[in-house]
Amino acid sequence: MGISIWQLLIVLGIVILLFGTKKLRNIGTDLGGAIRGFKKSMNDDDDGQKDKTDSLEKGEESKAYSASAEKSDEKTHS
User: Which spans does this entry mark as compositional bias, Basic and acidic residues (predicted)?
Assistant: First the structure.
């Protein structure tokens, strides 16, 4: 008792008659561009998080290196 293929084709035909193929093509292009932009911004956000994490890890490594270098300098000067 669901929607049959014939009912879907009739609805599709009515939509094409109402809007026209050019208008439907423009809507599809706009929708595709919006989805593409959304995915790109999500990927850019993920890359930004990775860069921030990497820079924090590098900062901690450089602090640890400078602290160990200061300790070794103190030992050599003593």
Answer: 49-63
